[in-house]
Amino acid sequence: MTISSPGLLPTETLLDSLVHISNEVVSIEKLPFVQMRNVSSMIRRIKLLSSLFEEIQEAETPLPPSSTLCFTELLSVITRGKVLIQEIKDASTLWGLIQLEFISNQFYVLVKEMGRALDILPLRLLNITADIREQVDLLHKQAKRAELTIDPRELQRREMLLEVMANNMMQNKKNKGYMDFGKMEELLSSIGLRTISDYDIEISKLEIEAQNQAGTGWINSGHHTCPKSGQRLIHTALIPNYALKSLVQQWCYDNNVPLNEPNSSVSEEKSNKKNSNDGAIDHISANKAGADAVKMTAEFLVGKLATGSADTQRQAAYELRLLAKTGMDNRRIIAEVGAIPFLVTLLGSHDPRIQEHAVTAMFNLSIYDNNKVLLMSAGAVDKIVQVLEQGRTMEARENAAATIFSLSMLDDCKVQIGARPRAVPALVLLLKEGTPIGKRDAATALFNLAVYNPNKSIIVSSGAVDVLIELLMDDKASITDDALSVLALLLGCSQGLKEIRNSRELVPLLIDLLRFGSVKGKENSITLLLGLCKEETEVVARRLLANPRSVPSLQSLAAHGSLRARRKADALLRLLNRCCSQPHHSL
């Protein structure tokens, strides 16, 4: 599948640009002494991607549309990464220490954007080796999990710098002219400033930075908080920070280190670079171009869904699934270009992968609330229920349950889904037969549906209570909290109360969960016990008091549980005390 549009570079040009810019980044020498960890990590990521780009370039096979979109985004990320690294190299090292959090956050944003771009990369459709595929997949996962990284050693160096500056200012006020030269030399050496030439260049850079900070800085861009403390500025009039420059100059003077005047050529070069970067990225235009590219890609893929062969439909559905995986704008645009009716039709496909990709794409689209209404209007529910019952793969059935869960977030959808006679039984069936993930999807969907009272009796009559209680005893299922949440809701209807009350296994299980369950599990366990006790006080009280663990567990919960759990544990203990104090009760 190939795609061409004025909004995207031609494939050959795009790959040439990616290989070129990646090699430029990878070949960067003499890494800066600040942000070394973030710079090294960014170069390592780009080096791995360059192997991907080169392998695809050598294969000379057409690219799927979503990969073209992904590579366009990656070109933007890598370009901005190169500019950021070069700016750090060209800028004052001491000022870089002061700006640690601000610059680190720029790297963090780039890594997260890289992860979002890789969300829509159809790795399995690319003609690449298994080794590269595994490495890119690992890079994708790491980028999605990435956190803001600030090197503790650089934080220590900044604290040392601020301490030296503060002490120097204090001594100057006292006219003592003293400075801790040992600390200053140690600090300068630790960030690569060791020679007269290094000091001269650093002072020149600080001179330029002071002039820049005397201008508008980051303030006119809407930043009105201190990058270090996070506190809101009480005014936006910046005073040039000559303290760093004077600190270095004083150290050089006191140590008889000669200094040249700031090099005009350095200033001119820095100024030229700054001017060349002005307006390099127009974020509004970039966002509009990105939306246009997504729309064009989605329109192309929907066309393939409508008229393509089975192989083409399979690939198009897979790429739409990836495209809808990230970003509310993507989900909105895909629906606007008319994808939903074609995806609904493909739910009935005899091809297992087409069906799986179609239902997963619908789940991703349903995360955007407006699309929930569109899916319901397109008659998607009956088709989704059919996949839930008889899907050709377990993943398709599980994602059908997840789609019902997502749709049932809206109250109107709870009503409509509950009214489908096969919907709830199909969820209960998956609750029995599914993998742990499928069981959880089914349980959460049932919970959403049970919030609407008329659905509770439907869920009970479908046999959900016995299955949910069985799952409480199944450690492998790992959905204890979800099962308890549904049971606690079903307690609110007469049929549910009757079914739950008839279980002989439930009360001992709930007593154990009072001791060993999660916070949420304990709350739902005490809710169920209290509800049962209020309905059949003597019978349930007898069963509770017959278990030596029940009262100590309740007392512990009343003392140390959550507010909700404490309140209900107190109520149940009072109820048990009243039962014990009445002589006509044979407890």
Automatic annotation (TrEMBL):
InterPro entries: ARM-like, ARM-type_fold, ARM_PUB, Armadillo, PUB12-19-like_N, Ubox_domain, Znf_RING/FYVE/PHD. Keywords: Repeat, Transferase, Ubl conjugation pathway. Its EC number is 2.3.2.27. It comes from the Eukaryota. This is RING-type E3 ubiquitin transferase. Pathway: Protein modification; protein ubiquitination. Signal peptide: none annotated. Residues 267-276 have a biased composition (Basic and acidic residues). GO terms for biological process: protein ubiquitination. SMART domains: ARM. Residues 261-281 are annotated as: Disordered. ARM repeats lie at residues 338-380, 422-464. It comes from Arachis hypogaea (Peanut). GO terms for molecular function: ubiquitin protein ligase activity.
